[in-house]
Amino acid sequence: MSDTAGLNDAERVREACIAAALEGYEEAAIAGLCGEGALEMAISVIRRLDMAEVVGQEGASAAETSKQRR
Questions:
Q1: Strand locations in the chain, DSSP E?
Q2: Contact predicate 16/54, CB 8 Å
Q3: Cα three-residue angle 47-63-33, rounded to 5 degrees
């Protein structure tokens, strides 16, 4: 794997984690969880991400990847 490919993979993982965290936090807040509960939900969503899927999708945006994991 070249350095560029590795950086691209890392960027996709980072974007997918951010998108998942924001989505999880928003869903938890809408459901009425407190800030701490919403943060725990956001972390839980990140832990459930399928990294093989995230890295394997060349050119996919983080939002698309996040929606596909559902």
A1: none
A2: yes
A3: 55
> pLDDT, tens digit, for every residue of 17-52?
999 999 999 999 999 999 999 999 999 999 999 988
For residue 42, the Cα-to-chain-centroid distance in whole angstroms is: 9
Type of residue at 56 = G
Question: By the 8 A CB rule, do 53 and 12 touch?
Answer: no
Token pair of 1 as six digits: 């794997």
CA 54 to centroid of chain Cα atoms: 9
How far is residue 21's CA from residue 63's CA, in Å, rounded to a whole number?
Answer: 11
